[in-house]
Amino acid sequence: MQKKWWYGKIAYQIYPRSFKDSNGDGIGDLKGIISKLDYLKDLGVDIIWLSPVYVSPQIDNGYDIADYRSIGKEFGSMDDFKELLSEVHAKDMKLIMDLVVNHCSSEHELFRKALADPYGPEGQCFYFVKGHEDGTPPDNLRSYFGGSVWEKVTGFEDLWYLHYFAKEQPDLNWYNPALRQRVYDMMNWWLDLGIDGFRVDAIMNIAKDLTFPGLAPDDEGDGMCACGRMTAKLADKAPALLKDMRDHTYGPRGAFTVGEAFGLNPEILNDIYGKDGAFSSVFDFTVRELFEKKPGYYAYEKPSVKLYRDGNFKGQELAMKTGMVSVITENHDEPRAVSFYLRKDLQNAQGAKVLATAFLFLRGLPFIYQGQELGMTKTDFNEPGEFRDLLSFTEYQKCLKHGFSKKQALECVSLHTRDQSRTPMLWDKSKNAGFSDGTPWIRLHQDWKKLNVSVQGEDPDSVLNWYKTLIRIRKSPDLEECFACGAFAPLPCPDDSFMAYRRYDEKKEIRVYANFSEKSFTIKDDAALIVSTGDITRKDGSLMIGPGSAAVTGRDLK
After folding, report:
1. Is the dihedral of CA 32, 36, 41, 45 positive or negative?
2. pLDDT-based confidence at residue 292 (cuts at 50, 70, 90)
3. If DSSP states are collapsed to H, E and C, what string results for 299-323?
């Protein structure tokens, strides 16, 4: 395997609205991020992924971009961004930006011009399509946020425009060379500014069937079908477009890219992130896809350690044949893992440490999401009005439609909502956990007085310090090569709540054991103990691993 500059690194996702507010308006900003760079460096972070900070009406929390070359005033200024980039590089870290180019905002100048003249050159940058003679939309696809993917165009009664997400997020027409060139020029502008790459949002959706035939209705009873099914059906059409993007932008520069690519089938993996793939890496969403194959929160699989383990193992084995994935346990679209996957009595610091051990030694580039390193649990949302995510309101109504009581609907949405990961970062015991002097834009976690950076920094047994320990081990000179490029193989697991695997290369073998069950297990393993947490006992060439405990062992093979 040809080793790239990003192999062996640790990445960290910042959700700027919720990271650190410097001016008291309740919204995190760039100056707030700058003030916390030493914290990230001390944690062991090498690459920072910055979620959108562009000009946006914030219909979808910044993933609806109105100006790709300007910073939203709530986050600061372009000068603030340049200072952030300079400080990140001065601390020997890298910065990647969120690239949202399946769609833009309906407030974007290009779309405004397109609305005025759908048949003109700007209109060709989007999908304006005539509906059926009976007045119905061109096809029956349902958007990710509910309702049709089609919106009528005012003043052109027979025309509709396409939006796979909110109606304020019109899809860009990637089959138009002029549109692609606009995107490439924008990307190269950011690369010229000095950023180190991109996280590429929802990118498999760029593949469209231009006949817009629709699909057979799913089981929602509205005659529509989830647009994600069309994306999955057309997955093999995307690589050619993505490689063209690579070749005209980040590819020749050696910049790092990680794709948010759902619905990948094994036949196209090499074209997406293999040796000649469009991206340096993709996020491993094997676990998440087990949930999202269902039509809504009301029908999602019950979360479990077994689901987490089996999904990760499947993703790891697929990646072994292809390239290097980026592994995640949390991000801005997923709930807090400790409360999501673990049983009640492990939804605490000890459970978070065991989960961190299982996660951080997987093969690939680990992305830590802000607050994950604190073992943040779910926030208690007390009523639907406390949600801020557009999708949460859609899912709440779905739950009611499928017979849930209001209480049951709230509990269901609270478990799965994207808002769980978007509550403010917890820094200290001062007002609003040190996030802001003003009123935070979204509610604060109820345990902020003890579940924060300041308290955990002073506790050698905290989740935060455990993350630091694991990161140091992953980067240690004698183990770094094995963790960065070594192979992965699952080990026999004595229980559905037990996760065990090995990492190895020609020189080293490392074994990871994470026991989330209520039982103790004795494993035959006489290798040296590298690190452990919880109840771990050595005896007669075996390792006894108690409930809620984890251990990592290693041996030289040469």
Report:
1. negative
2. confident
3. HCCCCCHHHHHHHHHHHHHHHHCCC
For residue 262, give both structure tokens.
Answer: 């759902």
Q: How does DSSP assign 271-282, residue by residue?
A: HHHSTT-SSSEE
> How many whole angstroms separate alpha carbon 130 and alpha carbon 136?
10
Alpha helices in 57-193 (DSSP H): 78-90, 109-116, 177-193
> If we measure between CA atoms, which residue out of 189, 277, 202, 271 comes closest to residue 4?
277
Cα separations in angstroms, 184 against 102, 242, 456: 13, 11, 44
Amino acid residing at 147: G
Look-up of token digits 């978070």: 352
Which amino acid, one-letter code, is at 80? D
Q: Cβ distance 272 to 242 under 8 Å? A: yes
Compute the average pLDDT of residues 136-148: 96
Tokens found for residue 17: 């609205």
With vertex at residue 500, the alpha carbon angle to CA 318 and CA 537, rounded to the nearest 5 degrees, is: 165
**Token pair belonging to 330:** 């949390």
Q: Which residues contact 55 (CB under 8 A, 6 or more apart)?
A: 65, 66, 67, 70, 71, 72, 73
pLDDT tens by residue, 357-391: 999 999 999 999 999 999 999 999 999 999 999 99
**What confidence category does residue 157 fall into, taking pLDDT thresholds of 50, 70 and 90?**
confident
* Catalytic (active site) residue 260: yes
d(CA 546, CA 533): 10
Q: Which of 60, 151, 201, 271 is catalytic?
A: 201
State the catalytic residue, choosing from 260, 284, 310, 333.
260
Rounded CA-CA distance 50/44 in Å is 17
Q: How crowded is residue 418: how many other Cβ atoms within 10 Å of its Cβ?
A: 19
Torsion angle of the four alpha carbons 363, 367, 372, 374, in this order, in degrees rounded to the nearest 10? 80
Q: Which residues contact 411 (CB under 8 A, 6 or more apart)?
A: none
Q: Verify whether residue 267 is a known catalytic residue.
A: no
pLDDT surpasses 80 at 558? no
CB 329 within 8 A of CB 376: no
Burial of 306 (0-12, 13-18, 19+ CB in 10 A): middle
* CA distance readout (Å), 271 to 235, 242, 254, 267: 11, 9, 17, 9
The answer to whether 436 touches 26, Cβ cutoff 8 Å, is: yes
Which residues share a beta bridge with 257? 198
